[in-house]
Specification:
The structure is a single chain. This protein is mainly alpha-helical and 108 residues long. The protein has 4 helices and no strands. The chain is elongated, with a radius of gyration of 17 Å.
């Protein structure tokens, strides 16, 4: 019984960590490249590479792999996503997502 609960918790945590990594990657893709430079952060391609590698490690760390090394890599790989969420994303938010609003002239 207790082993099944541990397995369930491990699976849920793995999925949550992977989701945090993927959402950070998608958010970084949507932000304009000039925003990274304007805020003095690493360039957009570097952040995309870091978050992409973290997401791959997160995918490899998902159960049912249960490989200790991949689980450990998943824990390490969540760090760049947390740094992005806590430090980089708040600084990039004023720049929007790079999509130009259509305004009243858009549409038909």
């Amino acid at each position: 019984m207790f082993g099944a609960l541990q397995t369930f918790v491990f699976i849920v945590l793995g999925v949550i960590v992977f989701a945090v990594q993927v959402i950070a990657l998608v958010d970084a893709i949507r932000r304009p490249a000039h925003a990274y430079k304007s805020e003095g952060k690493l360039s957009k391609p570097i952040w995309l590479a870091i978050l992409g590698v973290a997401a791959v490690f997160g995918l490899l760390g998902l159960p049912p792999s249960f490989i200790t090394a991949s689980s450990f890599l998943n824990v390490i790989a969540v760090v760049p996503a947390i740094v992005y969420w806590a430090d980089v994303r708040p600084r990039l938010q004023p720049y929007g997502t790079g999509n130009k609003p259509r305004g009243p002239q858009g549409g038909w």
